[in-house]
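Entry for the shared binder. Reason: the reviewer on the internal report wants the predicted structure included alongside the sequence.
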Amino acid sequence: MEKRKDLYTQEAILIKPNLVEALQNDANEIIANEKGKNRQRHLLFPFPYSDFMNLLIKFGTACLYKRCQSKSFVIDENNELVIKQLYYYVTHDSAFSGDLSKGILLQGKYGCGKTILLETYSMLHNHIVRKFSLNHSLLLFIKSVELQEQIRKQSVNHFVRRPMIIDEFGRESKSIQDYGNIIRPISELLSLRSDVGTLTHGTSNFTLNTLSSEKFYGRMIGDRLRTMFNFITLPGESRRD
């Protein structure tokens, strides 16, 4: 009886006019909704480039003073092209050289300014969200070593859906012991964040090839990194005095 009922239902569906068109319309609606969700992941900055640069200098200087470094944030020939790309990214300009749906991973030598640039971006982003009570999540800026320890103490699930900037990718231990078990907290987190599409940014001294090696995260996680990040190199030597 149930089998006959299923056949009748199947026949009713198949003879329905414009079935394929209706299903295509449903798919288009789902795609439009998902695109809307993806746009909501980004806080779009409403500034012209000149104002964006001035704000970076001001907030970057504030970041440096928080580190007890009495100097100003500088935009020069080493970081200006990357800052221009960051501007295209935060304004969703098609001139951005990568994929606007992915996060940004800044790569470069030690001390070249990767951390201060993305820390400044997160500070500016969070200040705007708080000041104008916007319906956007705050960006968590956290070093990979600290993040690994927080995952061990709390749970990886606590960090899966939270937008964040992970500083110094690859500097943490790749596996740790937890109550006698060997765990890989950052690898697990990256895998889960990739699965749900959480926006992730980061900095690293290491190339994608190095991060994908078995001494680091391995080829499987390395493949996920490709889908998560735009890899942008910040040139120049160390700016540290």
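Summary line for the report: The first helix runs from residue 2 to 14.
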